[in-house]
Amino acid sequence: MTDQTISSLEKFIATQILKQPQRKIAADEPLLSSGLIDSFSLMDLALYVEDTFGVRIEDTELNPDTFDNLNQLSALIESRK
Fold first, then answer.
1. Alpha-carbon distance 60 to 79, whole Å?
2. Residue 56 belongs to what domain range?
3. Cβ(48)–Cβ(42) below 8 Å
4. CA distance 15 to 22
5. pTM to 2 decimals?
6. Which of 7, 12, 20, 38 is deepest in the core (most CB within 10 A)?
7. What is the count of structural domains for the chain?
8. Long-range pairs for 29-37 at CB < 8 Å and ≥24 separation?
9. 10-residue block means of pLDDT along the chain (81 residues)?
């Protein structure tokens, strides 16, 4: 399920946040610390995660420690299922 989760997250970020549907995002590519996505986009991503995967994301988790790459985010989602 992890590969599917990462693929889904990558597609959402590329198409909905970056508006670059062809953009490939590596699973370990920094999202927040690199400035690829900003704090407003982070909220969109958190809502997508909650709606799509049925997990609750706490406001305190919206930071580079848990949301900085697709691997971290996927691990968080899997731990909540």
1. 16
2. 2-80
3. no
4. 8
5. 0.92
6. 12
7. 1
8. 29/69, 29/70, 30/64, 30/68, 30/69, 31/67, 31/68, 31/69, 31/70, 32/63, 32/64, 32/67, 32/68, 33/64, 33/68, 37/13
9. 92 97 97 94 96 94 91 94 83
In whole angstroms, give the CA distance from residue 40 to residue 76. 20
Which CATH number characterizes residue 34's domain?
1.10.1200.10
* Lookup: tokens for 70: 């697709």
User: Quick one: pLDDT at residue 66?
Assistant: 87
> Do residues 16 and 8 make contact, with C-beta atoms less than 8 angstroms apart?
no
What span, in angstroms and rounded, lies between the C-alpha atoms of 27 and 49? 16
Q: How far apart are CA 60 and CA 28, in angstroms?
A: 21
